[in-house]
Fold these 4 entries.
Entry 1:
Amino acid sequence: MKKFLLIALTALAASAYAEDHFFGPTDSHIQYVGRICFQNPESPQFSYPGTQFNVAFEGTTLRMKCKPGSGYFMAQIDESEPFKIAFRGSRDSVVTLCTALPAARHTARVMYCIEGYEYKPEFRGFITDGQLTDMDPLPAKKFEFVGNSITCGYGNEGRIGEPFMFETENHYYGYAQLTMRQLGAVASIIARSGIGAYRNYGGPREGSPGYNMPAQYEYTLYNDHSERWDFSRWQPDIVCINLGTNDLSTEPYDTELLKQGYKRLLSQVRKGNPKAKVVFLCGSMLNGKVLDICKQILNEVTDEAHKAGDKQVYRFDFTPIDGSLGFGTDWHPSLQRHQKMADELTPFLRGLMK
C-alpha cells in the first residue's frame, strides 16, 4: 500500500509539471545584475563579464534561451557546484540548466563569464515545466568594478604559451567575484581586456581617446554609444577601479596624460555614483619602474581628490605577480593568483564597509 501511494504521489508531481512554460526577459520574477540594454525588450543585449540572470522557480527542469553564439556562462542551481554552459554556433539557442529535480522551489544563478565584445550576447528568457516565483533579494552591499583583462579573468584557466581563447577566460573565478563571494556582496562589472585609463594596449603615446575607459564608462554597452547608462539602476556602495597596466605596458607613454585619464574617470564615477567610496587599485601585473609610476600617479590623484573635498577616495595595491602561483595565458594571473588577490582585497574592503 505504501509503495502504491509513493508511485501515485510521484506520478501526481510529474503531471503537475508536464507542460513547459516560457518566461521572457520582461518577466518581473527575473533578477538582473549588470549593464543590460533593453532597447529590444524581447532580446536584451549585454557586453560585460559578470552580468547575471537569476531566477527562482517551482518545477523540476529549467532551460535558458539566448541568441545563438552568445558564448559562455557559469550556472549554479540551488547551492550545488557551479558549472559552465555554452551557447555555440548558429542554432544553439536553448541550453538545459537542470532536469529531474525534486518538485519544489529552486533557484538558478547564471553569470556571463567572458567578454562579449565579439559574441554580442543577447538574453531571451527561461523555460521551465513549472512557474517562476520571487527570487531571493540581492545582497545589501553593492559594488562596481571597472577594469581591464585582470578584472575580466583573461586566460585564468589557460597556460603560458597557449593562445588566448574565450574558453579559458572565466570571470566567475576572477578576483572581483571571488572577493564578492567572500564579502557576501554583489557587483556590476565594466571591464575589457586591453583597455586603459587614457591609452589602450599598444596604443599611441597621445592615447586612445575614442576607445579608452573614460570613453566607454557612461554607456550601457561596450563600444556602442546608442544608449547612455542610467546610473540610478545601480548605485554601488564601493567602486573599485583597476586600470593602468595597459597604459604603461608599452613605450612610449605619457604619465601626465595617464593622470588626466584617471582624473576624468574619477569625475565620471563620482557624477554617476555621488555617495560611493572609490578605490583605486594597482596590480597585479605591473613590476619595477612602471609599477612605481602607477602608484605615484594614483597617490597624486587620490591626494588631489582629498584636497578638493572628496574624502571618499582610497588606494589599494595588490602584490605583484612573481610566478610563484603560476601564470595564465599571456602571463596573466592564474586561478591561484586571482584567489590570492581576493584574499588581499577582501579585508581592505571589509574595513571600508564597516
Note: The longest helix spans residues 288-307.
Entry 2:
Amino acid sequence: MFTKSSTRTITIGVAAAAGLLLVAPAAHAETEVPEPSSFTSAFTVMATPDQVINNDGVATPGQAGAAGTFTFRINSTLEIICYDIELTGVSGDYQSPAKTATHIHQAAVGQAGPPRIAFPNPAPVGDGPRTSSGCLQGPFTTGVLANGVDTGEGFTLSQIEANAAGFTADSHTVASPAGVVRGQLTQVPVGGVATGAGGTAGPDTAVVTAAAVGVAGLLAGAGFIAYRRRTAATR
C-alpha cells in the first residue's frame, strides 16, 4: 500500500478519469518496493495544460503556467515501475474519483482513456514545486470501476512497453478536474537502442541498468528529474 508521506487524501468529486463514473471501494493492491538493479525500459513525459482533454475528448486546458515532468523506469519482468514526478505552477488541492489524483491513463493523443496506475500525489501542496518518487510493484489498482471492474485489473507494464504512445500521464486538481497538466509517454533511447518492445540489442544492452537510464534522462532534454537511487534503508 502507499506509505509515503506525500500521499494525500483525495476528495471524491467530478469524474475526471475518462468515461469512468463509478468509484470502487478503496483498494491498494500495489506495493511500494525498493528500486530494482535493472530496468527493461524507460519513459519520460513533458506534461502541459494545453494537452488536457475531458471525458468526451474535448480540449479542456488545465492551469495556465503549470507544467509537469514525469520519469518512469520499468522492469516488466518483475512488474515494477519506478517514478520521479515534479509539478510546478500548480495551485490548490487534488481531486479525482480514483484513489489518488496522479495517473498513467491508457489514452492516445487527443483521446480519453481509463487510468491504469495511480501514483502518490506530488507534495507538498502549495506554491512551490511538488514532487513524488518511489517504486510500485503490481498488480495495480486505481480505485475506479468500469463495468464493475477496477481499471487497473489485468493491466501489465508490458502494455506500456508495447505502445508507449498509447499512454498519457496527468494529475488532477479541484480547479482542473479534467487534468491540470497532461502529456504522452515518450520512450528514452539508451545506447542508441530504443528500450522495451520493438528495440533490438545485443546481450550488453538488452536490459537497461539504473545508471544508464539516469544518463539517458539527463541527455533527453531540460526539465527531466535527475535520477535518484533509492534503497530499502531510506524508505
Note: The chain has two helices and 17 strands.
Entry 3:
Amino acid sequence: MNEQLIVDYKNFLNNGKTERECVQQILAMARKAGYKDISKFKRLKTGDKVFITKMNKSVALFEIGSDMLENGMNILGAHIDSPRLDAKQNPVYEKDNVTYLNTHYYGGIKKYQWTTLPLAIHGVVCKKDGSSVNVVIGENYDEPVFCISDILPHLAQDQMKDKASDFIKGEDLDVILGSVPPAKKGIQQTAEEKKDAKEKSKKTVLALFKEMYGIEEDDFESAELEIVPAGKARDMGLDRSMILGYGQDDRSCAFTSVAAMLEVHAGKRTTCCLCVDKEEIGSVGATGMASNLFENMVAEVLSRTESEYSDLTLRRCLANSNMLSSDVNAAYDPLNAGLYDKDNASALGGGVTFQKYTGSRGKSGASDANPEFVAKVRAAMYDANVNYQMAELGKVDQGGGGTIAYHAARYGMNVLDAGVAVLSMHAPWEITSKEDISQIFDCNRAFLGLN
C-alpha cells in the first residue's frame, strides 16, 4: 500500500470540501510539477505541461505527447462536486429569537442524515466592487460550528409515521447560525429598546459576518456558500484499513487521477486529467461535462499544436481518445445484501472497480463500453499488477446511477467507468478502503501509458 498517497489523500479531502477548494489544491500540485497556464503559450511542443480552468470550479491538465493530437489522447476524467447544502440567495432570517441560514440541498441526499451534525460553511462572497472574500467557518477546533435541529423522540410520534424521504422536508434543512434570549417578563422597555430587540439575533449574526469578512446582508445575493460536515477525514477501524471522510464521491477518484497525471510522463499519446463540476446534479451548467467545456479546452490545446486548426481535427482528436471515467461504485454491504447481485458487486478492498455500463434499470442514461476497449484496459492492469473487480451498482430494477461517461462517449471516444467501492455513498461521511485508493492510483498510472 502507498502510505504517503493515503496521507496526501486525506489532506486533499480536508482542504477540498468545495469544487473551488479542490481546484486550488490541484493547481498548487500542478504548478509544483511544472504545469503552467495555457495562456502563457503561443505554441505547444512535446513535453509541455499546461492547465486550463473554468470559473475556478473545473480544471484540465494536459501533457503534450509526441504524436499528433488528432490521433487521440489518454484521459482521466472525474468530478469534484459532492452532495451538500447550499445557502439560498436571501439566506439569513430570524424566527423567534433564533437565526437561521436558509438552504437548498444539492445532489442526491437522505435529508434526515444532515440533522444534528456539526456543520461548517465554505465558499466565496463576491461584492459589487469586484472584490471577493473566501469564507471558511467551522473547521478549526476553536471556531464555532453550525447545526440543523431535529425533533426529540418524545414529540416525534407524527414524524415517525412518515416515510424516511418525507419526515425531514427540504425547507426544514435550515442551519442554526445564532440565538439570543427572549425578552424578559416583568421588565419595562423603552421604545428604543423594543426597536433594538426586534431581530436582535439576526442583527448580531450579520454584524459578526461584517466584522469577520466585511460582508453586508445584500452581499449574500452574489455568494456561493456551501454547508458541509465539519471535521477531518479519519482512519477507520481498529486495523486502520479504511478512511471515513466527507466528499469521497468523487474526490477519491479526482485526487488519484491528478496524482497519477503528475507522476507519469506522456509518451506517444498526449495525456489529460479532467476534473469537472456539477456531476451530482446532471453535469449541467458551464462547468459541467454536459456543456462544451471539454471540447473548448481541447480546442485551446489544438490551436497551439496543429499548423492548421480545424473543427475536423478537433472531432478526430476526441473520437480517437480513450477515457477512464473515474467515479465510485456502491460497495457490497453485508447488512443489506438483498440490494446487491453479489457476483456483480464491488467489495471494499477488492481493488479498482470497473463498470462496463452504468445507468438505471434498463441501462437508461448509461455509457456501455466496447468489449475490445475493456480487454485492452484489462491487459494493462495485468501488466501493471493492478488488482481490479468488475461490478455494477446494485440489483437490476433496484436503482442505479450515472457518471460523466456518457457525456464523453458522445464524442465517439472509448470510455470505461473506473473507481473505488464506497460504503454509505452520498452520506455526510463516506467509507473507502485504503487498499482501493492505492490500487486506483496504480490503475491510473498504467492507463495513461496506453498506446
Note: The chain has ten helices and 22 strands.
Entry 4:
Amino acid sequence: MPYGNKTPMPDDHKTPPPQNQEYPGHTGDMAPEPRDEMRHYAGRDLLKDKVALITGGDSGIGRAVAVAFAKEGADVAIAYLSEDADAEHTRKLVEETGRRCLPLRGDLSTADHCQKVVDRVVAEFGGLNVLVNNVAYQAPVDSLGELSDEQWEYTFAVNIHSYFRVTKAALRHMGEGSAIVNTSSINGLRGNKTLIDYAATKGAINAFTYSMAQNLLDRKIRVNAVAPGPVWTPLIPATFPQEKVEKFGEQAPMKRAADPDEIAPSYVFFASERLSSYYTGEVLAPIGGETLPG
C-alpha cells in the first residue's frame, strides 16, 4: 500500500480494524496509516546544528522524532533493522526540511553493529549531541512456559543491551549539554501479563535511565525517558494477533491509541537544553489519561 493515508482514526472507530503483518512491519501496509510525519509541527531552532542518532528511527515514534528533530534544526541518523522502504521515506521527510539524514541498516541486537552505528554517525556528521534509544522488539505469550530462552534473550538484546551498547559508544563523543532520551513504556511501569519479557526490559530501561542520569551529572549530560501508553506503529500489527489489534488502545481512558505525532514532542522537550535544562532522571509517561500511583 502506498504512503498517504495520514488521517487519524475516525471518531466513531477509536481502534483499528483487524490486520496482521510479518515482523518488523511496514507503515504503508497499516490501515489506517499512523500520523507520523509531523506535518503540522513548526520548529523553533531548538536543536539548531545538533547531530542526533535515533535507533528504530525508520517508522513509528522514531520517524516522528526524526522529522521533529530535523524541523528543530538537527541532522539525523536513523538506525533500523531491515525496513528499507520505511527508512527511505523517513530520509525524504527529513531532507525536505533542509537537514541531512543518514539511514543505517542492521541488527542492533549484536554488539558489533551498535558500535558501527555510532562510528558511522560521527564519521559522517563530525559529532553526536543527542541520542534516542528507541529500537524495540516484542512478542506476546500466554504463559511463562511459552516464553522460550531464545525469545527472552533476543528481547533483552534488542531492548536493553542495545541501549547499553549504543550509549556506551556514543558517550565517547558527547559533551556538555548533550542529551540521551530512552524509550520506555507503560508496561515498564506496571507490567503486562502477556508481554513478560518486553515489560521486564522496559523496567530495566527505567532503572538504566535513573542510574545514568546520576552517573553523568558531572559531565552535564542529561538522561531521561519517555514511557508511552498504546501507540499505533508497525510493531502492533506485526506482533499482535488480529483480535488484539482490533481492540488496541481501547484500554486507555481516552479509548484510543496515540499516533506517533502525539508522542514525538516529548522527545523534543528532553532533547532541547533550552526547554529541559533542569530535567534529568525523569520518566515522562504520555498514556492517554491513565494515572499511576507513586
Note: The CA atoms of residues 21 and 238 lie 5 Å apart.
